[in-house]
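Possible regression after last week's pipeline update?

I re-ran a chain I had predicted before the update to compare outputs. Posting the input and the new output here so someone can diff against the archived version. Not blocking, just want to make sure nothing changed silently.
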Amino acid sequence: MLFQEISPTQAWKLIQNHHAILVDIRKLADFQKSHAQNAIHLNLENIPQYLHCWTNKTLIIVYCYHGKNSRIFAEHLANLGFKNIYSLTGGFAEWNREKLPVEKQTTSKNKAY
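New output (post-update):
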């Protein structure tokens, strides 16, 4: 496997202690309604604008709704040469179940990295 799976609690610790990048790949409308705190919205169309900001050592955690599509996207990032890629087990649903911080009702399309 080219990436690792990680629980929401483990992900939150990586974000706080190692400045990992949290990437939400859900539909933009869902991201705008609610997303994990400090997450950026990323998809195949806007990925090029972020790739130049990251090195192959950047810690990147990808999540979707329930943790299935994030595995595919994490593998895609690994195939692009990134070495520290994680897929969030259980996705945003599990993030919410664990009561980790969320941001709601944002109108920006993408957060700047």
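Follow-up from reviewer: compared with the archived run. The CA atoms of residues 40 and 73 lie 14 Å apart. Marking as no regression found.
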